[in-house]
Amino acid sequence: MTRNRHRDVPPAPIAASIEAQVAQQEAHEAQIRAFSESEGLLTQPDTLGRYHVAPMPAYLEPLRFLGVSDDLTDQDRLDVDGVSYMPDPRPELPYFYAANARDPRLGIIHEGAHYKQLALSWANPDPIRRRYIDSVANEGIAFYNEELMLTAGLFEDAPHSQVVVHNFNRLRSLRVVVDVNLATGVFTLDEAIDFFVRLVPMDVETAREECAMYLATPGLAMSYHVGKQQLLRLVTDAVVAQGDAFSLRALHDTVWANGNVPFSLQRWEILGDRGDLDAIDSSSGAASVS
C-alpha cells in the first residue's frame, strides 16, 4: 500500500560519492538522535558515541562476504565512535548498500541501533550484563527499531525509504522460511538463493551471502523475527500492566541498556513475569531459578 500510494514518486538518488554519503550519514545520525529525544523514544546520553560510515578499506573488500563490515567498538573502546564501511556508490550496488546509498537512515535504524544498544549495554554498571549471550535480543531490538522509526514518522519526508523499511520486514520474515528449509534439507543452497532473489526481491550476491551465513549458523536468521516478537510482546504487556504510568522511553532505555540479556529474563525483571522461565525449566527438566 505504501508503494502504491507513492507510485508516482521517483526513487531517491544514489549519493554522488562516498564522501557525500559520509556527510549525509553524519547529518542523518544527528537528526535521528534529536528525533528519538523529541519523540520520547530513547534517551541519547552525551556519553554515547556516534555511528558513522567510512570508505571501504582495500584490505576489507575481499572479506565482505563474511558479514557486515562494521566496527561497533567494544566495552574497552566506548570513547570511539562506531563505523560501518561502505563501497563507493554506484547504480548496481547490492541490496543493503543500495538502500544506504539512497538514504543513510536505512542503515542507521538497524546497524546504528546495534551500535547504540551495544554501547549502552557495554556501559552497564553490572559487568555480567555487558556480556553478549546470543543474537535473539540484539537482533530483535534492531529489527524492532526499524518499524518503530517508520511508525514514529522518521521517514515522512522519504516515500521510497518507507517502502524499503517494509521490504526489510519482508526480507527478515522470509529469512525464517529459508533458515528452516536449509537446515532441514528442504532447500538446496541454489533453491534458497533463488527464493530470496524472486520473493524479496534482491540481488544474487546478497542472497548468496545471506544463505551461506545461515548454512554456517542454523537458527541465526530466525533470531531477528523471534527477538522482535518477544520485544513487541514485552512492550504490549508493559502498556497493559503499567497503564497511565507507562513510558515508552523508560522501557526502551531499560531494554537497550540490557540488550545483551535474554528477553525471558528482562520480562521477569520488568514485569515480574517469569512464565517464560518456568516453561523453559519445565521443558528442560532443569532446576527452578529462584
For this entry, give a set of tags.
three-stranded mixed beta sheet; 58% helix; 3 strands; 290 residues; mainly alpha
Commentary on this structure:
By secondary structure, this protein is mainly alpha-helical. It is 58% helix and 4% strand. The chain has 13 helices and three strands. The chain has a three-stranded mixed beta sheet. Helix 5 (111-122) crosses helix 6 (135-152), helix 6 (135-152) crosses helix 10 and helix 8 (189-199) crosses helix 9. The radius of gyration is 19 Å and the shape is globular. The termini are far apart.
Strand content: under 5%
Question: In angstroms, what separates the terminal alpha carbons?
Answer: 49 Å
| Radius of gyration over C-alpha positions, nearest whole angstrom | 19 Å
Order of helices and strands: HHEEEHHHHHHHHHHH
Note poorly predicted spans: none
Q: Biggest sheet, open or closed, and with what strands and sense?
A: 3 strands, mixed
Kindly state the percentage of residues in helix. 55-70%
Compact overview of the structure:
The mean pLDDT is 94. The chain has 290 residues and is mainly alpha-helical. It has helices spanning 2-5, 18-38, 95-102, 105-108, 111-122, 135-152, 159-183, 189-199, 204-216, 220-242, 248-257, 263-271, 275-284, and strands spanning 51-55, 70-71, 82-86.
Explain the layout of strands and helices.
Blueprint (H helix, E strand, L loop, with lengths): L1 H4 L12 H21 L12 E5 L14 E2 L10 E5 L8 H8 L2 H4 L2 H12 L12 H18 L6 H25 L5 H11 L4 H13 L3 H23 L5 H10 L5 H9 L3 H10 L6
Parallel strand pairs: 1-3
Antiparallel strand pairs: 2-3
